[in-house]
Amino acid sequence: MISGLMNILRACFQPRENRHVHTSSDAGDRQDGLLWYKDTGQHVNGEFSMAVVQANNLLEDQSQIESGSLSLQDSVGPYGTFIGIYDGHGGPETSRFINEHLFQNLKRFTSEHQSMSAEVIRKAFQATEEGFLSVVTKQWPTKPQIAAVGSCCLVGVICNGTLYIANLGDSRAVLGRLVKSTGEVLSIQLSAEHNVSIESVRQEMQSLHPDDSQIVVLKHNVWRVKGLIQISRSIGDVYLKKAEFNREPLYAKFRLREPFGKPILSSDPAISVHQLQPHDQFIIFASDGLWEHLSNQGAVDIVQNHPRNGIARRLVKIALQEAAKKREMRYSDLKKIDRGVRRHFHDDISVAVVFLDSNLVHRASSVKSPNISVKGGGISLPTKTTTT
Fold it and tell me: Which stretches make up the PPM-type phosphatase domain (predicted)?
């Protein structure tokens, strides 16, 4: 039965042959079919491991680790580590835009404030949202469907012993914390999620839109904002933020029957600030494609019980094995399915595991460190997006 389904899907979704390989500037990354990975690297505060597996015909996930100066003046600082996971939907344009602009915006505001703070991060998110709105405005006459492209946005910043977590959407950051009395490493979810499958998020949407009884709708057994989208906060998705982009020539399936006066979705991130402790071992940052198949504690146990080298790739592999098991197929058969068709079995998955060396985490943010930049890759087709 599965083999028959695979044949039908291949016929319907056969990808084009023109392939464009995205790799980071770091020489240590590898591409193995639809899997991209960097098994190990060094950041200002310790080690890291990254992996991305592609399911969509166009990779909609983007990810990055930037370490070193967090301001425009490399010689001034502050110094630290920036981690970003951007889970796009409707296309790759928004997640790519975030990958190109968010960290630069953060560096600009850090320079202006001469320090790292939640306010700096919030301003960087807002500038990125406004930048993408400019892209949509310019492209609307010729490419109106870009108004329906958006992205979740999960960011972590480690600076001067402090961890900042900012999130829009349903990607997740999970801390592994050692309990010295037992030797266990417990999972602590650091990010607040904005998916209306969560009752508190539905209640938030209903309180923000008290006059709209259809603000959240159960459609095909899935809760969705206006029956269209599961997340309540994002970058992009301009068609649900500005009414002038919710009209023809946008596809009818995205157009609302009733006009709206205020944004339905928000771009204001939930930000939390944590003082890192010596028993904080590592943080797993991942798009929801991973968390569909692994629990928080399950992922933490895997990281704790295996070598650091290649741990992000291991997490991705175990998630894919779980995805195959749910479809009653072998992992080896799942690996043979090409991008596009693969999306029927699992989502794009991006993972960054950031280990915390307490000696490095708590040193002064003024200690100069070399700049490191790694961006997750995949097999994709280039798209032309104006980014001015």
Answer: 66-356
From CA 273, how far away is CA 83, in angstroms rounded?
A: 15
What is the token pair recorded at 97? Answer: 């835009």
The reported pTM is 0.89
| pLDDT tens track for 293-319 | 999 999 999 999 999 999 999 999 999
Q: Cα separation of 218 and 228, whole Å?
A: 10
Q: Is the preceding omega at residue 78 within 30 degrees of 0, hence cis?
A: yes
Give the span between the Cα atoms of 238 and 266, in whole angstroms: 10
Task: Decide if 195 contacts 232 (C-beta within 8 A).
Answer: yes
Between CA 180 and CA 17 the distance in angstroms is: 53
Q: What is the pLDDT of residues 119-148, one digit of tens each?
A: 999 999 999 999 999 999 999 999 999 999
Beta-carbon contacts of 118 under 8 Å, excluding residues fewer than 6 positions away, are 164, 166, 271, 273
| Residue bearing tokens 């749910």 | 326
* Three-state helix/strand/coil letters over 143-156: CHHHHHCEECEEEE
